Amino acid sequence: MVKRYQLNNKKIIFVKKANGQSVPFNPYKVIGTCMRAGASKKLARRVSDEISLKIREGMTTREVYRLVLALLAQFEAGGVTSHRYKLKESIMKLGPAGFLFENYVSRILEENGYQIQNIRKTIQGRCVKHELDIIVYQPDSKKKYLVECKYHNYPGIVTGLKESLYAHARFLDLKDVFDGEMLVCNTKVSNEVITYATCIGQSVLSWRYPPNRCLEAMIQSKGLYPLTILPLTKNELFAISRNNIMVAKDLLSIDKNHLSAITGISLDRINKIQDITAQIISKITPMS
After folding, report:
1. Judging by beta carbons within 10 Å of its beta carbon (0-12, 13-18, 19+), is residue 7 exposed, middle or buried?
2. Are strands 14-16 and 115-124 parallel, antiparallel or unpaired?
């Protein structure tokens, strides 16, 4: 049954998702996403109330997203929450090549208790060779995992059963080498994936799943926002990333004069970039 949301005694408003599906507009989702980005309950409700006044039939979720960003920037001094709100979009901007996502996932797993043993390593299985995205060791469980990364750079895509089956097939051919398997993706996973992964013992790390220890929670709890979350020009992004800097907070551990020298970005601009970076990671949300 579809839950109904009545807004100011008006008819239910339907918005269109990226996959073309029409769904009822839910103001409470706006509040939830704003608060996950670090907004206070007061700010989140203010944004949601304003959206509810501006929403119209047939508006796309992308348009709603852009409107939320604009309102966060308008209502909050400095607009820091609006930057954190762009986390999912920022990950999709890492680039069309999946290896950048693999490097980013490695950093996330490492700062959340895993030991990274290899990235993009080829291993002979019982039947064929496999080029694995990441190999990790989990000290608490004393298990060695193969990690299969699935990266999408377009909104509206859901990682489906095919990807879960693919990862498990690899694990079966390499079960003499590994104790477990993990599927990591930057989008939501289908219900089929959750059901199948639970059945076979496959670990899944994705957008909003598992609850309280999903990909975004791991990122936010450690302040591991990607460089692409910052308001950088294309030239600035290229100049910084070519120095193997992928996580925004790493900019704070580099001397500003040295950072200016290796990137060619003016010292004044470096100061501003470091300042906004510090503000973005200042409100780290611990995982519950």
Report:
1. middle
2. unpaired
Give CA–CA dist 86/38, Å, rounded. Answer: 12
Q: Are strands 143-150 and 22-24 parallel, antiparallel or unpaired?
A: unpaired
Judged by DSSP in three states, 23 sits in strand
Q: What one-character DSSP code corresponds to residue 3?
A: P
Extended beta strands in the chain, E state: 14-16, 22-24, 115-124, 129-138, 143-150, 180-185, 203-205
Largest CA distance in the chain: 64
pLDDT band at 8 (very low <50, low <70, confident <90, very high): very low
| Upper half-sphere CA count for residue 24 (Cβ side, 13 Å) | 13
* Cβ atoms 99, 124 nearer than 8 A: no
In angstroms, the CA 132 to CA 147 distance is: 7
Is residue 84 pLDDT above 90, yes or no?
no
The pLDDT of 209-226, averaged and rounded, is 93
CB 239 within 8 A of CB 247: no
Report the sign of the C-alpha dihedral through residues 203, 205, 206, 209, in that order. positive
Backbone angles phi, psi at 86, to 5 degrees: -90, 20
Residue 4 has pLDDT above 50, yes or no: no
Residue 76 pLDDT: 87
Judge whether residue 82 has pLDDT over 50.
yes
Residue 133 main-chain phi, psi, to 5 deg? -70, -55
Question: Within 10 Å of residue 243's Cβ, how many Cβ atoms?
Answer: 12
Q: How far apart are CA 173 and CA 12, in angstroms?
A: 51
Per-residue model confidence as pLDDT tens digits over 230-277: 999 999 999 999 998 999 999 999 999 999 999 999 999 999 999 999
| 187 touches 152 (CB < 8 A) | yes
Do the beta carbons of residue 204 and residue 183 sit within 8 Å?
yes
97 has a pLDDT exceeding 80: no
Please report the pLDDT score of residue 1 as a whole number. 34
Q: What is the pTM of this model?
A: 0.85
